[in-house]
Amino acid sequence: MKFNRFLQGNEACAEAAIAAGCRFFAGYPITPASEIMEYLAERLPQKGGVVIQMEDEMASLAAVIGASWAGAKAMTATSGPGFSLMQELIGYAFMTETPCVIVDVQRTGPSTGQATKCAQGDVMQSRWGTHGDYASIVLSPNSVQEMFELTIRAFNLAETYRTPVILLADELIAHMRETVEIQSADKIKTVNRKKPKRGDTAFFGSEEIPPMPSVGEGYNIAVTGSTHDEYGIRYTADPEVHRRLVQRLVHKITDNADKIIDVEAHNIENCEVGVVSFGCTSRSVYEAVEMAREEGIKVGQVRLRTIWPFPEKIVKAMARNAKAIIVPEMNLKQIFYEVDRTVKGLARVVSINKVGGGELITPEEVLSEIRRWRG
Amino acid sequence: MTDNFSVRRYMRNLRLPFCPGCGCYTIINSFLRAVYELGYSDLSRFVFCSGIGCAAWIPSPYFKADSIHTPHGRSIPVATGVKLMRPDLNVVVFGGDGDLVGIGLSHLIHAARRNVDITVIMVNNMIYGMTGGQVAPTTPLKTRTTSTPYGSFERPIDAAHLVAAAGACYVARWTTAHAGQLKEAFKKAILTKGFAFVEVVSQCPTSFGRRAGFKGAADIVRWFREVSVQLEQTEKMAKEELTGKIVVGEFISREFPTLTETVYAVLEEAKKHAKSS
What's the structural domain count of chain B? Predict the structure, then answer.
């Protein structure tokens, strides 16, 4: 059974979190993400879940991590300034293999920037924001429907790979309202973390994705953000233990990139011009591509629902056919360089950038660039 | 009582990392003895959270228990998340002064305000010991440290008073020269329904004592004994007389509804609301 609801993007994210099994939310007020906490504050306690407003974003993600080790699926939501503060805990969640979901509703930065205005400037921070070597899973919705679907997927990936997952939304998608088609609860596929069997002791290694016990279950878990062996014992100087740990943590994501990566692709094989887009910007691209096709231009399109790991194969495949690949984004070239690195000269990579005031890249701007590069 | 107490029962078989003469040995002993005297034969009903610093290594990974060793200053919010999801477990935070009243101070104040039902044990060695002896928010005025070579020029924080004012249910301060009182304070803190805070003034002979002019660990502990004043005595003392003294004792012992109680009351309210709407 399905039913339709008219929801705001942030509300759809909150509803999806409940559907995915989230039972703990900690957050700090910030525009344009606050509605997620407000909506959950009303709805989650009805389902027996806890919502708590913490003193800052570090405390918010810290509480989420504590709740996750206590066995709960847990989430926080923020925007750029709070996302910056969360970076130390994102690294900690990665290092300790703590499943959790972090929603970043992007606004105009850097710093306080323009709090109410849409942007896509946190793309690189979502990949490289914390220090040290790591890999991240970042999803990018472009509709209210996807705010729902990708929030559920974020929880499922977090539980599958025992890692933090970032839902990188933007102000436009978070604040607009659309009809969302929601499956009945029993039809929604949810994933729970793999639990250990009695007698298991290696919760941080041996297997690529080790089983995760909760506190209070009698396993004497030693969780640490310092370099540790498969039993959680700290090794602050051993090079081998560090390499083994960090390479496994990265590989468990990169080895499974094909399963994690999710894109929407059209006309990859038969195009003269290609477009790579994500989030709100992709909505202008659809219209531009339609107009271009009416003019007889063969346009290929890759829309990134997973931004990280970066969908290299499909972008490269498009570059083999297209003369040019256009990368429109509401930042000053972030995915552009990733596309350029991936296609390695197979096609010319052209950027369309716009920042400030939440002004969107228009279909006309994309269309005029498509026309310029047609065969 | 017949005393079958042994710290080994509660600890992993690992070599402890602390310097000779470190106050952490006394604290481990007093804490585990408190646990034993409360009737716990193991630590399975406990979860330990700690941040970064020497004191944070007390439970992690040395206690045979669940322990979460967090980023610097973030042990209390992690503990808050654990406690909210597992109200049945004893959640205990160990941390140093830098961890809890330096980088993590706002979390400490908010946890006391919220009355999270956890125990926080602050090992106050008056220095950033692990990083080599830099000035801390707790360093006495005019102390020579590696980052204040001409003597520190800021007034130290009074953590016990601060946490009491912030709304904690139990606050005590003792020094490592008061092992017996310390053990009793730990017992009371664990039994307290609500936020409990025990500040332990502790010696760091390596990073504090050497530059501050002490001959060794025993010399610092002797100083603790000399300058300690019981809280009750301070009422009769003039303000000037308290300069350079360490006020010890039980600052607060009281009861308020805990965070878990108030949060779970909201859950019940919300469920009723969901049914009626």
Answer: 1
Q: What is the interface pTM, i.e. ipTM, of the complex? A: 0.97
Band of residue B4 on the pLDDT scale cut at 50, 70, 90? confident
Q: Domain A264-372 carries which CATH code?
A: 3.40.50.920
Q: Do B110 and A54 touch (CB under 8 A)?
A: yes
In CATH terms, is domain A2-187 a member of 3.40.50.970?
Answer: yes
Residue B1 resides in a domain? no
Please check whether residue A298 is in contact with residue A323, taking contact to mean a CB–CB distance below 8 angstroms. Answer: no
Domain that residue B112 falls in = 19-276
| Residue B147 included in any domain | yes
Ranges of CATH 3.40.50.970 domains, chain A: 2-187
Listed residue (A214, A208, A130) closest to A166, CA to CA: A130
Q: Return all residues near A177 (Cβ < 8 A) that are at least 6 apart.
A: A6, A7, A8, A9, A144
> B83: which chain A residues are within 8 Å (Cβ-Cβ)?
66
C-beta atoms surrounding B27 within 10 Å: 24
Tell me whether residues B273 and A70 touch, CB distance under 8 A. Answer: no
DSSP codes of every residue in B246-273 = EEEEEEEE-----HHHHHHHHHHHHHHH
Sequence-distant (6+) residues with CB within 8 A of A85 are A56, A57, A58
Q: Encode pLDDT of B121-137 as tens digits.
A: 999 999 999 999 999 99
- Contact flag A234-B66 (C-beta cutoff 8 Å): no
Instruction: Indicate whether B6 belongs to any domain.
Output: no
What average pLDDT does this structure show over B148-177? 98
Mean pLDDT (whole number) for A233-262: 98
Amino acid at B92: V
For the stretch B39-67, pLDDT in tens is 999 999 999 999 999 999 999 999 999 99
Q: Is the dihedral of CA A262, A266, A270, A275 positive or negative?
A: negative
- Assigned token pair, A294: 């009416």
Percent of chain B whose predicted confidence (pLDDT) is above 90: 96
> Which residues of A fall within a CB distance of 8 Å from B261?
none
Nearest to A322 by CA among A303, A342, A301: A301
- Name the pLDDT band for B277 (thresholds 50, 70, 90): low
Interface contact B82, partner A, CB < 8 A: yes
Cβ of A216 within 8 Å of Cβ of B86? The answer is: yes
User: A232 and chain B: CB distance < 8 Å anywhere?
Assistant: yes
Q: Looking at beta carbons, which residues of chain A come within 8 Å of B166?
A: none
pLDDT mean over B164-177: 98
Would you tell me how many other CB atoms lie within 10 Å of the CB of residue B180? 10
The structure tokens 């083999």 sit at A320
Q: What amino acid occupies position A55?
A: E
pTM of the model as a whole: 0.98
CA-nearest residue of chain A to B263? A50
